[in-house]
Amino acid sequence: MSTEMSTATTLRPMGALDGWAGRFAELPDSVALLAEPFHAMVDVRTPDPAALEELVGARLPGPNAWSGGERVTAIWLGPDEWLLTSPFLAPAELEAAVRTAGATGVDVSAQRTTIRLRGAHARDVLETGCAIDLHPRAFGAGSAAVTLLGRAGVVLLGLGPADHRILVRSSFATYLAEWLLDAASEFR
Length: 188
Hints:
By secondary structure, the protein is of the alpha+beta class. Helix content is 24%, strand content 31%.
């Protein structure tokens, strides 16, 4: 039993797109895709957002926005609901910190995987399959939306004018990766 336990603690979490780096590397610099490392994700409900400010390192965002400090990002999902993510904390650590702050938290880390899309044509790629206005004046750094991309439900974060983070359900990750590669093919 102790051998099983020690093996389990040394395994690193795998993402749904591990192994896709070679296909993503075929794209030009004007459209760069990256399957980001595993992120802990905790869905949080709280009537008192200020209670989580110390954990996040910033004020919790309002509608259609995200905020974050050095280790944790908070994404607004609804009137009293946020998704907290962190590549630095284990899911159990993040969930425990949420509960210590007096909020309700559920570990949803295995639910989504994270894709980074950046480059001069990143917005063009997104606009081929996303109905929201992605112009930087409408969807700039700090913006967030729960929307469809292709036919996959995603959480889309604006990191900068040519830089986006896409959180997609793990079961749709390969579909979305194929879709993004196809949408980016005109920029090769």
